[in-house]
Amino acid sequence: MSAAALEPAAPALPRNALLRFLWRLFRTKPLGAVGGVIFALFLFCGVFADLLAPYGFNQISPINRLKPPSLQFPFGTDNLGRDLLSRCLYGAQLSVIIGFCVAILGTAISVLIGVVTGYLGGKVDLVAQRFVDAWMSFPDLVILIVVVSVVGPGTPQIIVILGLFFGIGGSRIIRGAVVAVRENMYVHAAQSVGASTARILWRHILPNVLPPVIVLFTTRVGAAILAESGLSFLGIGVPPPAPTWGGMLSGSGRTFMYQAPWLALMPGLCLTIVVYAINVFGDALRDLLDPRMRGSR
Length: 297
Known about the structure:
This protein has helices at about 5, 15-30, 30-45, 50, 85-120, 120-135, 140-150, 155-180, 185-190, 195-210, 210-235, 245-250, 250-255, 260-290. It has about 300 residues and is mainly α.
């Protein structure tokens, strides 16, 4: 009997492209797949927090103040008797969805600036990239604090400010990918037959830079959640009584940290788990989508 006959047959791949990609993800990157599932679970909890939360996020019960975790209150209660599980669920509705919206806006801005400047080059690229260099030279936290202090706190303001902040800085990554793609033969062939610039960008440049775009999007979600939590911790994020994980850490969580440690532990764990999950998921996507790493283990 030949050696080939003794080797186990390779498992059949699903025919659908999405199912095939998910099969590769769970088979080769199980940690990244678990991270994606955890982030999807947090996103689901945030979207349906109104249905999942056992109590209102601002429902006060003085008789149940500072209760430790129990069957009635799995995450315990705060100094006003509010259920921490409900507040963490509504915090996911704010923190995770704000991070998702910021990542969408920031990635769109990065793609717009990076694709246009990387393909056109010349003076357009020179002027735009010097502006990006100047923007990235300022301290991140100082810019955020100054801008939020001027326009005022609020969910729309936070989304727009963080989207602009991450979008301008992330354009360097997209520009580098576009500069590498524009020298390929199919781009020169499209130019030689008279294809318009818009068609070349849409049909030839953008599809070939999607892997770094997807990876940039996933990393921006975690960074945006941390940035929003930091602003809420400093008191210039989403204003109360709206519950955010950073706001819970800053308010009663810091005041009653020693008397009731679960006030800081529960929102801190939610923040840590969701950021770690989206980061490992982004790393797995990078390994699977980058052609230079498809053969690596």
